[in-house]
Amino acid sequence: MVNQNPASQSSNAIVRAIHRHYSDTNYIRSDQTIEREKFLLFNIPFNRWAMFPTAFIFQAICGSLYAWSVFNDPIDSHIYGSITNPTTGKSTPVAHNAPVTFYIAVGCFGLSAALNGPWLERHGPKLAAIIGATVFFLGNMVAAIGIYTRIIALLYFGYGVLGGAGLGLCYISPVSALQKWFPDRRGLAAGFAVCGFGAGSIILAKIPQPLTAAVGLPLTFVVLGCAYFAAMLVCAFVFRVPPPNFQVNGMDMYRNRVDKSGDPESNSTEKAVQDYKDPNAKMPLSTAIFSKEYRIMYIMFFGNSIAGLVFLSRLANIIKDIFAKDEATAATIVAINGGFNLGGRLFFSTVSDRLGRKNSFFVMLLSQVVILASLPTIMEKRVYWAFLLVIWILTACYGGGFGCIPAFLCDMFGPSNIGALHGIILTAWSLAGVGGGLLFTEIYNHLLASGFTIKDPNVYSTNLRWVLGVACVGFLFLLFVGTHIHDRLLPRVKGEFARLRVFGRLVRIGSFGVRFLSKDDEDKEWDAYEEKRRAEDQAAAPRTAPEVGYS
């Protein structure tokens, strides 16, 4: 059915502007630009595989955000001073305000990705990457000034607002381009791009400490900012989207099979029906954003992200406080955990090309639910090896969500919308990080004030209850993501409000209860639907390519 969005007819200029922004994703290039982008440098032909290493490096720099915790104590000590324990000789900052920078950056990261996604699709990944890198560079410079002048607000604005906004635009730029270049390997392309983000948190976390010792804390941000900016600019000039006639392994950018002439294969009336029932059709962005499937996927992704953001971020403290390990052991475990984050992004996204995106999320979310339910017992009994085992699996599933989601969105809504949809869904990650982090901290501090100690597992297991609840909600919503075309387009029957598939059979849920549809009945309904749409096409002819819409 065709969705009519009343926003386009609104008398409010702001509403109309927002509608236009999220409706137009056409990237118009001149013939000269298309010809120029056939070459990487001088007369060296461009090869799509060149995007892999450059996207990895680009995302690794974006992943430096995850290494922010190494700056917390040095910044707080520099701005507010520190107290030295005469027994241990260890210095402790007087105040602990630097971690707020990370939460601001995460919030601006998601907001920037959501707002700039349509703009990215209209202007291409190269320009988006250059602008994002420039804003991130400026953020580092302002942060350096804030640290030098000991003004925490400048640090918040520099690294938090500018840095986070720049990284949000940078993050989605290579992911969007890779999904268009690799219709035959969407999962692998998405996973390889975003696993760089995980790698950055491991590699770049080792640089600030020796650099600070050599040049001082303010100049550390100047040196890193300049180095990041130079590397990101080099990578950005490799980013581009395929030419209009692009095809690979017998398919075009939309995964339509093409004949030897490069035209999509057609079969008269059947192709006419396929044009509007194919989930990879050129769906308007506004239609995709307001579709039921996208809303469900947003909640699903939120559920997959919550544990990794609010629980795993405190892994070092848990290792030291609950299991009585030393600082060096905790640091080693956190580094290994980062490797599982990276590996999960690449493993699950690659496997999803064979297993399917929904099935991959099924495995990841179900694993998280089981692990979160068992963690309180493991921590209470202090079974260290079991804790490490389940935490590393949990981390791999958390990372796998980031690896699979771009390809999942591309499968569901087409490559033309991937930049915007990926950007918007990242706000679920931001909400989980900011809102979940603040809630976790509030409950944690309340329990400590109530008499619990940091070595009591209850300060974590109490929080795990609501984290488990959110993960369960994400898992339940996943079941209702309609990846089968029948699930998405078959008209709803009277009283129906939800549907899902159980072992391949369509299940309707409504005021009539739960109703399983036989394969024969489903085929009959689909045949009737096709016949009705074919008749509507003939009655409306001549007609341009119809919009795909979902109720």
TrEMBL record:
<comment type="similarity">
    <text>Belongs to the major facilitator superfamily. Monocarboxylate porter (TC 2.A.1.13) family.</text>
</comment>
<feature type="transmembrane region" description="Helical">
    <location>
        <begin position="421"/>
        <end position="444"/>
    </location>
</feature>
<protein>
    <recommendedName>
        <fullName>Major facilitator superfamily (MFS) profile domain-containing protein</fullName>
    </recommendedName>
</protein>
<keyword id="KW-0472">Membrane</keyword>
<dbReference type="InterPro" id="IPR036259">
    <property type="entry name" value="MFS_trans_sf"/>
</dbReference>
<feature type="transmembrane region" description="Helical">
    <location>
        <begin position="360"/>
        <end position="378"/>
    </location>
</feature>
<feature type="transmembrane region" description="Helical">
    <location>
        <begin position="464"/>
        <end position="485"/>
    </location>
</feature>
<feature type="transmembrane region" description="Helical">
    <location>
        <begin position="384"/>
        <end position="409"/>
    </location>
</feature>
<feature type="region of interest" description="Disordered">
    <location>
        <begin position="528"/>
        <end position="551"/>
    </location>
</feature>
<feature type="transmembrane region" description="Helical">
    <location>
        <begin position="219"/>
        <end position="239"/>
    </location>
</feature>
<feature type="transmembrane region" description="Helical">
    <location>
        <begin position="49"/>
        <end position="68"/>
    </location>
</feature>
<keyword id="KW-0812">Transmembrane</keyword>
<feature type="transmembrane region" description="Helical">
    <location>
        <begin position="187"/>
        <end position="207"/>
    </location>
</feature>
<dbReference type="GO" id="GO:0016020">
    <property type="term" value="C:membrane"/>
</dbReference>
<dbReference type="InterPro" id="IPR011701">
    <property type="entry name" value="MFS"/>
</dbReference>
<dbReference type="Pfam" id="PF07690">
    <property type="entry name" value="MFS_1"/>
</dbReference>
<keyword id="KW-1133">Transmembrane helix</keyword>
<feature type="transmembrane region" description="Helical">
    <location>
        <begin position="154"/>
        <end position="175"/>
    </location>
</feature>
<feature type="transmembrane region" description="Helical">
    <location>
        <begin position="100"/>
        <end position="120"/>
    </location>
</feature>
<feature type="domain" description="Major facilitator superfamily (MFS) profile">
    <location>
        <begin position="62"/>
        <end position="486"/>
    </location>
</feature>
<feature type="transmembrane region" description="Helical">
    <location>
        <begin position="296"/>
        <end position="316"/>
    </location>
</feature>
<dbReference type="GO" id="GO:0022857">
    <property type="term" value="F:transmembrane transporter activity"/>
</dbReference>
<feature type="transmembrane region" description="Helical">
    <location>
        <begin position="127"/>
        <end position="148"/>
    </location>
</feature>
<feature type="transmembrane region" description="Helical">
    <location>
        <begin position="328"/>
        <end position="348"/>
    </location>
</feature>
<dbReference type="InterPro" id="IPR020846">
    <property type="entry name" value="MFS_dom"/>
</dbReference>
<feature type="compositionally biased region" description="Basic and acidic residues">
    <location>
        <begin position="528"/>
        <end position="537"/>
    </location>
</feature>
<dbReference type="InterPro" id="IPR050327">
    <property type="entry name" value="Proton-linked_MCT"/>
</dbReference>
